[in-house]
Design brief:
16 helices; 24% strand; 2 domains; Aminopeptidase; single chain; nine-stranded mixed beta sheet; 483 residues; alpha+beta; Alpha-Beta Plaits
Length: 483
């Protein structure tokens, strides 16, 4: 955002007497800390948990649950052992041999429906050659106050935080009005078969009304070096995965000919790339920008608190950054090609794989029709590989407010707000059961560390994990404990 442009526009607005018409975004009202929270938390031995969760996370990171192939039962067994040592029973439910998900419960009075704490056990693949030799993807190594390994951010650290919450509640005897249900599931990174299995076949063992899962986290320096923004996912884009196949005459590659499959595929892709995606601002973006702006102050803060000015002045900047552009538009990403076998043979069919992410309000089949209409070639076929509509949960729910309240408690340098996640998680499937699901990993990291998500050198600061445990525990007690 150019300051000169901002100032010029603001002066014009004020000069016309229109400044008052630029309505501000409603501020988040997190509410006061409930009186039952501090007495309950005082029963918990936080210092002991600080040490234990580092050891648990190291062991978990050293447990190879790379997907494919998964082998998530290994991770589930590790979590089950810790739970058993603390008097908490659990079940491991497999959808295939070695592909297990864990369900554990600490019971409350049953006055209110259960609260679920969800994580996934599997992690994505990693190239060990790109990591330091002594801090590899399966090392769980501690170096300069950080713990390294695939899953440190996505999302074994959150799994351990949720485990620690159950252990803390069980040890301390905090009275609950809701059962706490720990879910650690298989196969989130590939086909979501773990959560689909639990939702379809074992929902009677879960039955929660609210759920905390992965999603947003705290990023230091997201917009300004001295500010941390804690994003809490209230909504997730939908998805449409498509195999687009072009057909034509096969032949020899030495003589280019018209109407061949590879050229048809290239033409189809060029039409899709040229398609201008309509822009839509989700309310969560206004809300979080408004929180950031109120904290920043000054001209930039004035603009960020006013949706009309954000759209007028910041739209070009937001569209120029891939992450924010994905929050504003339906996206199409080409993720692979199929069909060519020999350099000198033109095949009669070639395909591209498309990953489409869809804003709330866009149905997958309607978007498929848009793709077909844009390509406008009867020799190009579309095969749907996977689809799910966008889903969201309300930002005025008591669980969301508890998460935001505890994220920023005691922090004059931090703000929290809702987020439309450009990816999707297992929350898509639990929301189909009417569950209010919120994505929040209460760990604060720098932009540099956040960039290791699914990349080389994934790691997390130990101090951030320890503070995250306090944030999550506080929010859970706030929401679920007996009042």
């Amino acid at each position: 955002m150019q300051v000169r442009k901002v100032l010029t526009f603001l002066l014009a607005v004020v000069g016309l007497g229109l400044a008052a018409s630029c309505a501000t975004s409603p501020r988040m009202v997190w509410g006061d800390l409930a009186p039952h929270v501090q007495p309950a938390l005082a029963k918990v031995d936080l210092d002991r948990l600080d040490q234990e969760l580092v050891a648990w996370l190291g062991d978990y990171l050293r447990t190879d649950t790379t997907n494919p192939p998964g082998n998530e039962t290994r991770g589930a067994e590790l979590l089950a052992t810790v739970l058993a040592q603390n008097g908490i029973g659990s079940q491991i439910l497999e959808f295939a041999p070695g592909r297990g998900s864990l369900v554990a419960r600490v019971r409350g009075t049953g006055k209110l429906p259960p609260l679920c704490l969800l994580s996934h056990i599997d992690v994505v693949t990693a190239n060990a050659q790109q990591w330091p030799r002594d801090r590899g993807p399966l090392s769980g190594a501690v170096h300069e106050g950080e713990i390294w390994g695939r899953g440190a951010l996505d999302m074994k650290s959150m799994g351990i935080l949720e485990l620690a919450v159950l252990v803390a509640v069980k040890r301390s005897g905090v009275a609950l009005d809701r059962d706490l249900v720990l879910l650690a599931v298989a196969d989130e990174e590939v086909d979501n078969r773990g959560i689909k299995h639990l939702v379809a076949d074992h929902w009677d063992k879960i039955g929660c009304s609210h759920l905390v899962n992965e999603g947003g986290l705290g990023v230091r320096g997201a917009l300004r070096a001295d500010q941390t923004v804690f994003a809490i996912s209230t909504a997730e884009k939908g998805l449409l995965w498509v195999k687009m196949t072009a057909r034509g005459k096969s032949g020899h590659g030495s003589t280019p000919m018209p109407d061949r499959a590879p050229d048809r595929l290239l033409d189809a892709l060029q039409r899709l790339r040229a398609k201008v995606a309509p822009v839509s601002f989700h309310p969560s973006l206004y809300a979080t920008l408004g929180e950031v702006g109120a904290h920043l102050g000054g001209v930039q803060g004035y603009v960020l608190q006013r949706p009309a000015l954000v759209e007028w002045l910041a739209l070009d900047t937001l569209l120029a950054e891939p992450g924010s552009k994905a929050m504003l538009t339906n996206t199409i990403a080409v993720t692979g090609f199929f069909g060519a076998e020999q350099p000198n043979v033109v095949p009669d069919a070639v395909s591209a794989q498309l990953d489409c992410r869809l804003l709330p309000g866009t149905e997958p089949r309607a978007f498929l029709y848009e793709l077909q209409k844009t390509v406008a070639d009867p020799q190009v076929e579309f095969q749907v590989l996977h689809e799910a509509p966008a889903s969201e949960s309300p930002p005025d729910d008591p669980l969301f407010l508890a998460l935001g309240r505890h994220a920023v408690i005691g922090r004059s340098d931090a703000v929290a707000g809702p987020l439309l996640s450009v990816g999707f998680t297992d929350s898509l499937w639990v929301r189909q059961k009417g569950v209010r699901a919120y994505g929040f990993v209460p760990v604060e990291v720098s932009r540099e560390i956040a960039a290791t998500f699914h990349g080389a050198n994934e790691r997390v600061p130990i101090a951030a994990v320890q503070r995250g445990m306090r944030v999550l525990l506080g929010a859970v007690v706030d929401f679920a404990a007996h009042r």
